[in-house]
Design goal:
Elements (H helix, E strand, L loop, with lengths): L9 E4 L4 H12 L4 E5 L2 H13 L4 E5 L5 H15 L4 E4 L14 H19 L3 H7 L2 E6 L12 H21 L4 E7 L7 H9 L16 H13 L4 E3 L2 H12 L1 H29 L1
Helix pairs in contact: 1-8, 4-6, 9-10
The protein binds NADP nicotinamide-adenine-dinucleotide phosphate.
The site of NADP nicotinamide-adenine-dinucleotide phosphate has 31 residues, from helix 1 and helix 7.
Amino acid sequence: MPISLTDKPIVITGASSGIGLATAFECARAGMPVVLAARREDRLRDAVDRIRSQGGRAVSIVCDVADPEASAKMIDVCLSSFGSIYSVFANAGYGIEKPVHEMPDADVRAMFEVNFFGTLNTIRPALPHMIRAGAGHVLVCSSCLAKFSIPYFSIYSATKAAQNHISRAMNLELRAKGIRVSSVHPIGTSTEFFQTAQRLSGDQAILEHTPAFFTQSPEKVAKAVVKCLRSPRPEVWTSTFVRVGMALSGLVPRIADRAVHRMVRDYDRRAASNEAASVGAR
Ligand SMILES: NC(=O)c1ccc[n+]([C@@H]2O[C@H](COP(=O)([O-])OP(=O)(O)OC[C@H]3O[C@@H](n4cnc5c(N)ncnc54)[C@H](OP(=O)(O)O)[C@@H]3O)[C@@H](O)[C@H]2O)c1
């Protein structure tokens, strides 16, 4: 029997754009009061106004999820605005595309601070309330890359694998307390993710090679998240084809590596031609 989501409040991080924003609308349509969190206040305000104009309940809070104290306030806002908390969707995150040996430690740590520690910062303050209520659902936005790291997205993939690992373990740790934990594994989704990655990665980015048939809408992910809230399961995949591919790549890593090796060749060629162009310009 699907769970009714009416009047069950949810906190969503990364709700100013993309998957988080689409999920906020989908949850509000399902009757959930929503707390939208991110750093861009104007975007959040606009989203709250639009949700309210459609008859939904929503509030927002400006929050950098890398800051544990600021993150705890998201949960306080949910309790003070809606009286309880049923769910959190730890969705805020970003990627940088660079070879591992060229990625400065500061960039690696910053990405873990947001993608991994930001997830813990979001989940932990909510759990005592869920445990007390004997019910709740934690969702974590991982990625299809949690299961198979492609070249130049390895640090990003490591953060996503770490999210997947804690989600799977927490689902077992918390189940007896009435709390479900699910990781969400989108494939390439048409959001601001790629512009942000391009901006943070510099001119060596190879993002234009992301195949168009791997791209889905954030609304598709949002619908999958709400479906999982209604009928909880440990992992949410939005492409069966990619899910099967990722499972096979774990079984036959040599063949999987051969399939993506072309990306490395393309990357090296582009890096060489960029280098030649910049030498020519000097
Ligand atoms: N797009 C894809 O192809 C894809 C595929 C698989 C998984 N994912 C995952 O999906 C999640 C959402 O990404 P998206 O695709 O929707 O990209 P997006 O449109 O760029 O959204 C990212 C969101 O995260 C927020 N954010 C970033 N850093 C933050 C911080 N330090 N504190 C609080 N909020 C922060 C951004 O808001 P502010 O800038 O306003 O803070 C924004 O709302 C990410 O975890 C990403 O790894 C994306």
